[in-house]
Amino acid sequence: MTAKEYLQQVRLLDLKIDQKMDQLSDLRAKAVNSGQALSADKVQTSVSGDRTARIVENCVDLEAEIEELIRSFIRLKSRIIDEIHELDDYRYVELLYRKYIQYMRLEEISCKMKKRNGEPYSYDHIAALHGEALKSFSEIIKIP
Q1: How many other C-beta atoms can be found within 10 angstroms of the C-beta atom of residue 27?
Q2: Do 1 and 70 fall within a single domain?
Q3: At what angle do helices 47-84 and 123-140 cross, to 10 degrees?
Q4: What's the rounded Cα separation, in Å, for the pair 44 and 75?
Q5: CA–CA separation, 136 vs 100, rounded Å?
Q6: Which residues does 108 contact at the CB level (< 8 Å), separation at least 6?
Q7: Domain range holding 90?
Q8: What pLDDT, in 10s, does the model give residues 87-104?
Q9: Rounded to an integer, what is the distance from CA 131 to the centroid of its chain?
Q10: pLDDT score at 40
Q11: Same structural domain for residues 101 and 142?
Q12: CB-facing half-sphere around the CA of 88: CA atoms within 13 A
């Protein structure tokens, strides 16, 4: 795994959480639209009620899965931020944080990051700096 792939794990896990939440939203809509709401007063079961109960069970399972993904995401993000903070060059810290934690494109970063004199960096400079930052980061976390 490269330093870039390692850092991209944050965004990948964030994307998976978003997709699971979309899936949960769809399941909830199916439960509501199944033609009958679950009620404790209902004694007789029906095919529609059984279907709704299965959908609700799936929702509960999916919610638990999402909660675990969120816990993993928080741990991973925190660990990677701490590792980024181990870099000695403030430019590397800012660039990697913006790129892999805030999901900014290099074009956006070149507009946001400023030199000590207040001028923005060029895109070419940011792209080169990104390569240097990844190399330095891989040395810190021992990626060959």
Answers
A1: 18
A2: yes
A3: 90
A4: 46
A5: 15
A6: 98
A7: 85-144
A8: 999 999 999 999 999 999
A9: 23
A10: 46
A11: yes
A12: 4
Q: How far is CA 128 from the centre of its chain?
A: 26
- Specify the amino acid at residue 139: E
Q: What is the rounded CA–CA span in Å between residue 99 and residue 105?
A: 6
Q: How far, in Å, CA of 79 to CA of 77, rounded?
A: 5
- CA-based torsion, 14, 66, 2, 78: positive or negative: positive
| Cβ atoms of 8 and 100 closer than 8 Å | yes
**pLDDT score for 4:** 97
Q: Please report the pLDDT score of residue 27 as a whole number.
A: 87
| Average pLDDT of every residue of the chain | 89
33-63 confidence digits (pLDDT tens)? 765 444 445 444 555 567 778 888 889 999 9
29 plus 93 within the same structural domain? no
Q: Are 9 and 23 in contact (CB under 8 A)?
A: no
pLDDT in tens, 61-86: 999 999 999 999 999 999 999 999 99
| Of 60, 81, 102, the domain-final residue | 81
